[in-house]
Write a structure and sequence with these properties.
D-Maltodextrin-Binding Protein, domain 2; six-stranded mixed sheet; 14 strands; 474 residues; alpha+beta; 2 domains; single chain; globular; 21 helices
Length: 474
């Protein structure tokens, strides 16, 4: 009974927000996901083993890619049937998964976002056993599963460092992004800004010129009000979000929402808004609204997830202006330490029989082989997840053709390998993100004092973390 309580408590504390680190206009579809019957891991007709693959994408491009690759795998290995089920968000996937685990009909592979890595590690079933199995443990040192080469050794450093816990890949990296900036260079040049800003001060200087134009846009710059951008800035400044090295040398038991780096970033953000430079859409986590403002040329610059690099670049061209991607602007008064990743990984269900487990592992590695990882990158803008995929894209001339597509990879590669630039492993992270996002909205909309409002948020966030750790911390 204790284990069952822990299981349901885990999902209760995940909160209500969707972590949108993985994308923008296509990352958080509002329409209901298609209804497919949940697929488990038991053998199906004859000798065919069906393996459910639950994904948090329902848009045509990303879901279409996923289904296409599942069909290719099934054709290559007719003894398996990878069955894709689509959900509208990462939270929806995980909420459905807990019910499926409890009913005895879980999927074999679950797509879940980076911010809930700690929760996924802590998740246990009614029998007290972990819901997920370490991918490293399941592979067991093999360099090939079925006929699929294991790609873990080729995973790019940023994703490897984030998702390696206690020396083990617990999940298989897939869609990985970072926060970068997209600029309407036609508008900037018309304002006399010949180089894309790279620091906070340069952003302010550029915005002064943009807003002084006779035909000035409604605003100069925008980005979604989402805690992920706060976390990015903390990483840039080399500051921790939580104690115990961001939860990497031990479980995080305290968060720091009143640090110098936090207050400096939120104060800069508020200053832009007070001057009329920053456009707030009035909606928290508004990926669609901010992207649409940029594409409608209502602002000159957009800080956003790199996951939509292809979409934003092409849409800018269609709208008649050039889009240039660049690193996320940083605090030029401090040494730049590094930006974090966003996105999600694939988690392997614990307790499958060997045939099903090997099929799931083979599919995970097939899914991110160099050709597939390169194709996924070209379609979306998520970084190529392996070094072999990067090399393939380079050899094909892709980066010469599409230089915007390389920016996120370069930004992540430029980061120092420190706890600050890795990002936090944190219990109740989704709820804590929500607390930060709400506090920032209060500051922007109600003109509240930054230090006072963040101090209040700090109390709320640490209470949320303490509640989580009381259940799972020991």
């Amino acid at each position: 009974m204790r284990s069952r309580s822990r299981l349901f408590s885990l999902f209760a504390v995940l909160g209500l927000v969707v972590a949108a680190c993985g994308g923008g206009t296509t990352a958080e579809p509002e329409a209901p996901a298609e209804a497919e019957a949940p697929a488990g891991t038991a053998a199906g007709d004859g000798d065919v083993t069906t393996i459910g693959f639950w994904v948090a994408f329902s848009d045509e491009a990303r879901l279409g890619f996923t289904k296409e690759k599942a069909a290719e795998f099934n054709a290559k290995y007719p003894e398996y049937n990878i069955e894709v089920t689509s959900f509208a968000s990462y939270n929806d996937v995980f909420d459905a998964a807990v019910l499926a685990v409890d009913s005895g009909e879980p999927p074999g592979i679950i797509h879940f976002f980076e911010a809930a890595t700690r929760q996924a590690l802590d998740a246990v079933g009614a029998d007290g056993q972990p819901i997920f199995k370490s991918v490293t443990e399941a592979i067991g040192g093999r360099d090939k599963i079925l006929d699929e080469p294991v790609v873990l050794d080729s995973v790019v450093d940023a994703a490897r460092n984030y998702y390696t816990v206690d020396g083990s890949f617990y999940s298989m990296p897939w869609n990985t992004s970072s926060a970068i900036m997209f600029s309407n260079t036609d508008m900037l040049e018309a304002a006399g800004v010949m180089e894309v800003p790279s620091t906070w001060a340069e952003v302010e200087a550029a915005c002064e010129k943009v807003m002084a134009m006779p035909n000035a846009p409604a605003g100069c710059i925008t980005w979604p009000n989402h805690s992920w951008f706060v976390e990015q800035s903390l990483g840039q400044q080399g500051e921790l979000l939580a104690n115990n090295d961001n939860g990497r040398s031990g479980r995080a038991t305290e968060v720091y929402l009143t640090s110098d780096g936090m207050l400096d970033y939120v104060s800069w953000w508020k200053g832009l808004a007070d001057k009329g430079y920053y456009t707030y859409t009035g909606v928290q986590r508004d990926w669609d609204g901010t992207a649409n403002a940029f594409l409608a040329q209502e602002v000159a610059m957009l800080i956003y997830s790199s996951s939509d690099t292809t979409f934003l670049t092409n849409s800018g061209k269609e709208a008649g202006f050039d889009v240039q991607a660049s690193f996320m602007p940083y605090n030029g008064e401090k040494e730049y330490v590094g930006n974090l990743i966003g996105g999600a990984t694939l988690w392997l269900l614990n307790g499958m029989d060997k045939k099903a487990e090997d099929g799931a592992l083979a599919f995970m590695n097939f899914f991110s082989n160099p050709e597939n990882a390169a194709e996924w990158h070209r379609i979306t803008g998520y970084i190529p997840i392996t070094k072999d995929a990067e090399a393939l894209l380079q050899s094909e001339g892709w980066y010469d053709e599409s230089p915007n597509s390389k920016v996120a990879s370069d930004q992540l590669a430029a980061a120092q390998n420190t706890p600050a630039s890795l990002g936090a492993l944190l219990g109740n992270f989704v709820a804590i993100r929500d607390i930060i996002t709400i506090a920032i909205e209060d500051i922007l909309v109600n003109d509240l004092d930054v230090a006072e409002r963040m101090a209040q948020a700090n109390v709320e966030a640490n209470k949320s973390l303490a509640e989580y750790e009381a259940l799972f911390g020991g």
